[in-house]
Specification:
The structure is a homodimer. Chain A is mostly helical. Chain A has a single domain, classed as Arc Repressor Mutant, subunit A (Orthogonal Bundle). Chain A contains five helices and three strands; from the N terminus they run H-H-E-H-H-E-E-H. A three-stranded antiparallel β-sheet of chain A has the order 1-3-2. The interface between A and B is large, with 52 and 52 residues. Chain A binds a DNA duplex through helix 3 and helix 4.
DNA sequence: GATAGCTGGTTTCCGTCGGAAACCGGAACA
DNA sequence: TGTTCCGGTTTCCGACGGAAACCAGCTATC
């Protein structure tokens, strides 16, 4: 059986659901190439709550995309680093971030045009 | 000012939030290269409800990623097609789907390993 | 003539999920 | 003694997503 992300019974769909997530995309992009500690990630991604970050990291760890390493320092520091598998995904999801940053102008002008058309229609 | 998806005040973040969405990824991948009607999309993406599909399509239309064309047939048919901008995004998000289908095996074995480690720890 | 079915939605309802904030223990520091 | 830092967990509430019903207009079937 070949994977088919369009088949809800296929595990590929579950994986896609998880990596097509705004927080996962940002975290993966951030960890690419440089291991980072919990609070450092949190500071680098404003708006991401501790709870959701902890859950996101645990899911990514379960999927074999990153490793969690605790150091017996005081206080305990925990470092998250991408696995080789995670690095391959990071490249892919980073393309999404690059697309957003590249085409943001076109998207915003499309939004303005759409909204002004709505106002016309309502008038 | 350069776009920065990690800045919550930057509109790039809003765009990224939207395209890093599981349903948007599947819909964009489906529409790539071939205009499709509303119910055809719904049938091709099981699990996607009418409400969420309608909302997703309207947001993508607002972002200038696809066009909505109504034909005066009986009953009225509505066709959704990617814009050139949407096509460039479709290529990018399709890489996500391809990644998922390619590495699903590695992810699943990582999950099994993670879960069995948990069971050990609990015992 | 009534019923079912197609089209593309909108509305209603409810469960789940995400975000905000409080709380945790332990140690250094003032 | 109180504060800060670490990495979380817990609690609470509002918002969002999914399931299903409902809608109008026309057609094909019985």
């Amino acid at each position: 059986m070949q994977p088919d992300a369009y088949d809800p019974a296929c595990p590929t769909r579950l994986v896609l659901d998880r990596i097509a997530d705004k927080w996962a995309v940002l975290v993966l992009g951030l960890l690419a190439g440089r291991p980072t500690r919990f609070n450092a990630i949190r500071r680098a991604v404003p708006g991401l709550s501790q709870k959701v970050l902890a859950e996101t990291l645990r899911r990514l760890e379960r999927d074999g995309l990153l490793t969690r390493t605790a150091f017996a320092t005081v206080p305990v520091t925990v470092e998250y680093a991408l696995t080789p598998l995670g690095e391959t995904l990071a490249e892919t999801v980073d393309a999404l971030r690059v697309w957003a940053e590249t085409h943001i102008g076109a998207v915003q002008s499309a939004q303005r045009a759409y909204d002004s058309r709505l106002v016309e229609g309502a008038a």
